[in-house]
Design a protein that fits this description.
Elements lengths: L19 E18 L2 E14 L6 E2 L3 E2 L7 H10 L18 E9 L2 E9 L12
Antiparallel strand pairs: 1-2, 1-5, 2-3, 2-4, 5-6
Length: about 130
């Protein structure tokens, strides 16, 4: 006996040949995100961004990234350095400041999935809040 056929999920595809505009509508956190790195399972804090894109019905997301602002992390290289004024590795920055930021995004096809290739602010970069201490 064979299992019944399941319908294939069709994902809304984003244009990959031009900039797509929208906003960062949410910053999502996962304290115990599981991932595989160099063949080993790691568990730790992670973050991803939710985008509401102009001309698209469904929200789109960045991939889950280690929640670290280290200079070699994807979060810092791709997002923090591009979107935050005066960004430096390991800076004090509240990710929630990116909510509602208008952005333009270049997407890249990766098999049947799509990934954020580049992201830039549509207007000005976010100015980090001054710390009280």
């Amino acid at each position: 006996m064979y299992p019944p056929q399941r319908p294939k999920t069709e994902f809304e595809q984003v244009a990959t040949d031009d900039w797509t505009t929208g906003i960062i509508s949410e910053v999502q956190y996962n304290e115990n995100h599981k991932r595989i790195w160099q063949g080993e399972e790691k568990v730790g804090p992670a973050v991803r961004l939710k985008f509401e894109l102009e001309g698209y019905k469904f929200p789109h997301y960045s991939g889950w990234m280690s929640f670290s602002y280290g200079e070699k992390t994807n979060l810092y290289k791709k997002y923090i350095s591009a979107l935050v004024e005066g960004a430096t590795p390991d800076m004090h920055f509240d990710m929630d400041q990116l909510k509602e930021l208008p952005v333009k995004i270049m997407w890249k096809q990766n098999g049947e999935y799509q990934n954020v290739e580049l992201v830039r602010p549509l207007n000005d970069k976010v100015k980090p809040e001054k710390l009280p201490f």
